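> Could you send the UPF0735 ACT domain-containing protein YszB prediction when you get a chance?

Sure thing. Input:
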Amino acid sequence: MKKKDQQFYLVDLKILPEAIKKTIRVKEMLQDGTCGSINEAVKKVDISRSAYYKYKDHVAPAFETEKDKIVVLFLVMSDDFAVFNRVLRRIVKDRNEIISLNRGIPAEKLVAVTITIKTEESLSYLQYLQETIKEMKGIQSLIFEARGELT
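Output:
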């Protein structure tokens, strides 16, 4: 299937076919170290290797709490799209995923912006990102809040 033809949905696990549920269990067992090999995991959940390989690249959790961190950036910046653009480019430069973006109504040449990102980066990286954005021309203030295990 071509990338442009892919469609994604959030679906309740309860309605999925048994083969897909078992594929998810195999992937979880491999990730958490319960099983050391695919052969061992597929035997434990009673699924064929061919069924596992058929579905393994097509299932993933919506949010992987082990790796992903959700970070919310609250900014007050100049009402200048060049500044806004620089902030966004800096965030995505290190492959952070922007989940949501809210740009308020400008007042007195300033605008409030809230950006929510998903990242796998460490606390030290996030502190570096915060300092980098704070130092940008046109940024008045920046506060960030993080959710997920920060190390």
